[in-house]
Each structure stands twice: as C-alpha cells, then as structure tokens.
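To whoever is on call:

I kicked off a structure prediction for a single chain this morning and the downstream step that reads the tokens threw a length-mismatch warning. I double-checked the sequence; it's 478 residues and nothing unusual in it as far as I can see. Pasting both halves so you can look.
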Amino acid sequence: MNIHRRSRSHECRNFILRMTNFSELGLPPDVLSAVEATGYGKPTPIQEQAIPRALEGRDIIGIAQTGTGKTASFTLPIISMLSQGRARARLPRSVVLAPTRELAAQVAESFKLHSSNTRLSLALLIGGVSFKEQLALIDTGVDVLVATPGRLLDHFGRGRLLLSGVQIMVVDEADRMLDMGFIPDIEKIFKLTPFTRQTLFFSATMAPEIEKITSEFLSNPVRVEVTPPATTVEKISHVVKRFAPTRKSSATKEKRAVLRAILAEVDNDVENAIIFCNRKNDVNILLNSMTKHGIDCGAIHGDLDQSVRTDTLGKFRKGLIRYLIASDVAARGLDIPRVSHVFNFDVPTRAEDYVHRTGRTGRAGRSGIAITIATRADSKPVGAIEGLVGFELPIENMENPVDQPAKSKSGGRSEIRRKSRTNASETKSPGDDAVVGRDSAKRRTSRRSVAKLEQADEEVIVGMGSHVPAFLTRSLHS
C-alpha cells in the first residue's frame, strides 16, 4: 500500500510538471477565453489533476485544502462537457449540491463567470428565496442546477423537478454535508439520478465515513489528493492569544475586551477579517458589543434571513464592512480573496472546523494571519487542533484588559483612604487613640486574611469582597 502511494505520488508530480497553463488541460476555446478574461494565471494543483480526468468522464474524489481552486475543478469541466446539447423543461443536465446557501450562491457565480461565452442556463435553488422565481427557471430548462439538498428535494416533492436527465453530479464540501446530517438527503438524490451519471466529490477533508458513501455512489473513482487531509495553508501564520479571566462567570465578557485589545494592536495590518463564534447567539452579542464600541462590522449566521445574509456578504466583499462576525456557516468554501485575518473568538469544538475557518485567509497565494483567543480551559480543543494540523500553535500570554481599570480604581480608593486617615488624625481627640489603634489592628487582620485567601486561590468568596471575617478565613485554611 505504501509503495502504491509513493508511485501514485510520483505520477502526480510528473503530471504537475507537464501542466503549465490552462490551455494544456483540454478545455475548449470558449471556456479558455472566459478563464483568461477572469485574469487567472496558471492552474492550481487540484485543477491540473482533476480537470483532465473529469473531461475523460471519470468519477473523481478530490481532496484539497480550502483556497486551492476546487470550485473551478468541477465548473470548468461541466461547462466544457455540456456545451453541446440542450436542456429540457424540469430536467436539469447537471446538479451541484452545496451544504450552505452562501456556498451554493458562490458556486453559481463561478458558473456564470466561466460560461459567459456559452448559452448554458443556470438555476440556483436555495432557501430564503421565492419558489416562484426558481420554478420559472426550472420550467424553461436548466443545464446547470446548483442547490442545497433540502430545497432541491422540496422542488422534487412538489413534482416540479425531475432528475432522470442528470448527466453529471457534484457534491461540494462532502464532509460538511455529512456533518450537517445530509446523508439521507444525498442518498435519496443519488437514487433519483441515472446510475450512468458521472459523479464528482470535492472536499477539504475526507472523513473515513465518506469512503463508504463514495464506494456506493461512485464508479471506479480517481482519487486526486494534492495535500494531506486537514492541513492548513502554508502561508498562514497562526497564534493563540491566551488570557486568564478574573472569574468564570465573566469570561465571555472579558474575552470581548481581549478581542478589542487585539484588534487595536493589529489595526494597521488588517485589510478585512472574519471573526468566528461557536454559537449563533454569541454572534449577535458580539455584534452589538463591537458596534457599541464604534467598530465597523456586520454579522452572518444561519438564523438570519437570506436577504440579510446575502447583503452582508456583498458589503463585506466590496470592503464596505471591515469585520464580519460569523458562525461556522461562513467557514466552508466561501471565496473572499482579500481576507487578511481570521479571528477565532471561540476555539472551535471540532478540530476540523479550525482548518476551514483559517482557510478563509491566505487564499490565492496570499499570506494570512489566524489569531485564536483562548483560556487555560481551552487546552483540550487546542491540543486536538494541533494533533490534526500536525504542528504546535504558538501561544502568547496576554494581560486581561479588565485588570487594568481595576488596578486604577484600586489605586484611587487607596488615595481616598489615605486622605481620610490624614483628616481623621488631624481632627481626633486625645481620647480616641485607643479606639483608632483597635480599628487599625482590625483592618490589618482583615487585609492579611484577604491576602492569604488570594494567595491560596483566585476564587475569593463571591459576594463578601474584602470583608471576610478572620474566623472564617482561619476555618477555611485550617
């Protein structure tokens, strides 16, 4: 097995050396001219290996890290192979399945761009958009149908779409499809298409469970793997910014202050950036907090209306929004070339999601920076990420910004106490000396008790502040 892999790797390297530009991939002239118009240079390794095999009619399992040009690896062959022929009403000639609305819309844009010199028709079937508009496109005949699984099955269930004419089937971000629970939908869709179809699977990572799926749906597939699974782009710099929360209950609030401190530190270097949160509710909270502090940002997650999501992404691509706060709905496949930074406000709970999140930067040969905010409680997920990507993430300890105002306020109170003591000594009567002495002794005992608690543990008794009775302190540490 190892010898076979080395031999195939050697074959792939020779193949890459032979390929120097798109004209050598077997694409027709009208497609080549559209590619040249987009300003693309040389094909990427995944394109060099996948496009010729797809043009031969082979089933393909394509594995490559994000930002390496997987979308063009299937859009260009499909446009080339469907350039002859004509679509019939309700019978699409090809189907591309994508896990999210944003990724489906992006794939559709790629088809429009590369098919500008052809007469191929396209329909995008995603949720949040009127059924009526989509039905009108299907009824006129569609060469390329780009869809999310749920919306495609909705149209099929209404009897407005047939899949018996599908010649080419593509599953993009296949592992994400499986993660999101689309296995039953994918199985159903495949069973509705002809067994003679050509099938292409593309993904940044390939979970072992997918091997079983591909063995059922693909026929003698060519495996194109240009990078090891679950690796990150080499030009991305990674760092973990670790801080210590003052209390567990305030950790998330203090993390927002940490994020603002980091943004202020790297402000001059940020062109635009995506900030990832693990939960949709946290996206909303962080958006409100950032906006309150005058930071230019927008948000995207699965519960927002499609029109809002599309508008926000459009503004972000145009540079009208500098920071995009997002859930993992934006972690897969979105191609926004000039994202200079990715911030993980939350350490992802799944190590694979770190690969996809950080893959939003460092695209198209550019460099990028990935910054993750963490506490010591995040040691386990950070370790899982390091195990997956194969290297240690540099860790930089940073001060909790919340501590700074607290020290300043403490200093202010000390000054007030000093003045109070001075005034008291100036106005006291001779008979007050004994009372003052007893009060001073009590204050010293209280301060020693609190100091002892703080040295023993950061978790001082909640709600009692610095007024911990001496007897209670002794009982806790006896």
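Update from on-call: the warning came from a stale cache, not from the record. Cleared it. Sanity check on the structure: The chain has 18 helices and 14 strands.
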